[in-house]
Write a structure and sequence with these properties.
The protein is an alpha/beta fold. It contains 5 helices and 8 strands. It has a single domain, classed as Collagenase (Catalytic Domain).
Length: about 180
């Protein structure tokens, strides 16, 4: 049996990890296991004061247990790729590993009071988005679909923690053919 692993770096709080794991288990129909992941401090870029997403994703891919269908790494670190100011996450399209940053999903990042329900809903949506990529899903034009590209937190808020009908069908086909 293959499992969906949710890997937390030390700084991730339990409520976020639980919300992500429960949502992923429901949407992908897989048992979820947790795994502790090492620090991504090696990926810190002092000039940007952010962490290189691709390097962190490569670490997650190397840490993927043999019985893992997929591994989602979860971090509080602010991630980037060189051509973008930031990323909410990154994934191996059709691969085994993905990473999600919770940093910009928090209201506090924008100077607003904490709002745990909003934060946890954003975390669920972004986890589904990045895991969707590992199952071969690409960005979707349906704005409410979890696979819709979000370039800002307001777009995440307008998405649902679910896949549109066409993306859901592609996901089922992928799971059947795997």
């Amino acid at each position: 049996m293959k499992y969906l692993y949710v890997g937390a770096l030390a700084e991730v709080e339990r409520p976020a990890l639980t919300a992500i794991g429960e949502c992923a288990a429901r949407r992908f129909g897989m048992q979820v296991r947790e795994i502790a992941l090492p620090s991504i401090d090696f990926a810190f870029d002092a000039g940007r004061k952010q962490y290189a997403s691709t390097e962190a994703l490569e670490l997650a891919a190397r840490m993927c247990p043999p019985d893992a269908a997929k591994l989602l790494a979860v971090t509080e670190r602010d991630l980037f790729v060189p051509v973008l100011t930031f990323v909410f996450g990154q994934a191996q399209l059709g691969g085994r590993a993905a990473i999600v940053s919770l940093a910009r999903l928090r209201q506090e990042f924008y100077g607003l009071p904490a709002n745990p329900p909003v934060f946890l809903e954003r975390a669920r949506k972004e986890a589904l988005h990045e895991l969707g990529h590992t199952f071969g899903l690409v960005h979707c034009a349906t704005e409410t679909c979890a696979m819709s590209l979000a370039t800002g937190v307001r777009h995440i808020d307008s998405k649902e923690a679910a896949f549109c009908t066409p993306c859901g069908a592609r996901l089922v086909r992928h799971q059947v053919n795997s």
